[in-house]
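Methods: holo model generation. Sequences were used as deposited, without trimming of termini or removal of tags, and paired with ligand SMILES retrieved from the corresponding compound records. Each pair was processed once, and we did not select among multiple samples. The sequence and pyridoxal-5'-phosphate SMILES for this entry were:
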Amino acid sequence: MSTSEKFPQISPQFFSQPLLETIANDFATPTYVYALDALKNNLAGLRRHFPKADLHYALKANPSGALIKEMAALNIGAEVITLGELQRAVHAGIPRLILGGPAQSPQLIQAALANGVRQVSLDSLSQLASWQDVAWPEDLSFFLRVNPALDPQTHAHLATGAVTSKFGMTSSEAAEAAEQILKQGATHLAGFHIHAGSQIHALDVYDDIFKCLRPLYERFASQGAKALNLGGGFIVSGDGSKHFDFDGLRQKIEPFVEEFGLALTLEPGRYLTANAGVLLTQVLHIKDHRSVDGRLHVICDAGMADLIRPALYSAEHPMYVLGRQDAEQTILGDVDGPLCENADRLMQQKQLPEIVQGDILVVEQAGAYGLTMASNYASSFRPAEVLIKDGDVRLIRKRETFEDLVALEL
Ligand SMILES: Cc1ncc(COP(=O)(O)O)c(C=O)c1O
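and the model returned the structure below.
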């Protein structure tokens, strides 16, 4: 990583300084803050680009009950992969659900059917065998998830479309699954599904995706495959340097869906919620080791237990010091967490502005894969969550306490 890179930041359009100061004062830190207007803005943008697409929010990105209730009111569907996600989505009143994921236990299948799930993405022939054990409602239909065996040009942990990943079937397995489903009636075959990875920015990935899908639709479109699920994965880049080219994607999708007469489904996660959330963390200590390792170490009250993306994916979250957004960035340093792990940091080797003990840092793009991936490692209490809606601030999840940590212990 170049040492000349800046402590990146993105304009705090939806998170005003006075509101964030009030939240830090009233609810302490670390606290996640979401702005409903930012989420609505992202959703409106996607709907403008794909007005006919059936949008299913990937709940794993941020399953906060208050947020997904708002999404239900905006008539967005959800993609769920676990019993917990299914129950959360039903509880929030989300109107349409797709059950996906590489593991669908008999218990999950039963719960999905009982809760009105009527679209399922199958990841393997083995999963199809599990579904053969239950009676299919007339309106149940299946997407067959295909592994396109391509290079999604993203972090290895996010490259679900790589041939070595556990996801999806080969094209011939998907064709075999389609044949088996057709025996139960053409209406049970929805079509094919590819989610090639997350943080995708290279549009040529979609050329490979359509190359993989073409023979399947040539064979099955006339037999009932009338839908296409292209997953999610649209990039939200840390330094704002890469923007997903939705116009370019639409130009690739349109001729394909028109040729085969397909309805389009998308499963965006990160794109909807990432920049609709920030994490507030307070600076507890400053260790000036510039004469030792060339760095200033800024030790905060949030780290890998609260936001694991920097440790897990080397993700770069834009940050700024609350109240000093425009401060000059002249000091090389790391923004570290409070735990005893080298990987416990929020930012590494960046040019930082002057930072002093007690400062509040605003960690941006924390609305996706933030609290949902947080843990109790080192008996950390997971952060509180706050929602900004119509200018009002509301606590939507309390900070955990010692009682929460031991609640399940016998
Ligand atoms: C099948 C599927 N759809 C959609 C998503 C959402 O991806 P993203 O949050 O990158 O949009 C995921 C993420 O893992 C996924 O596995």
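The chain has twelve helices and 17 strands.
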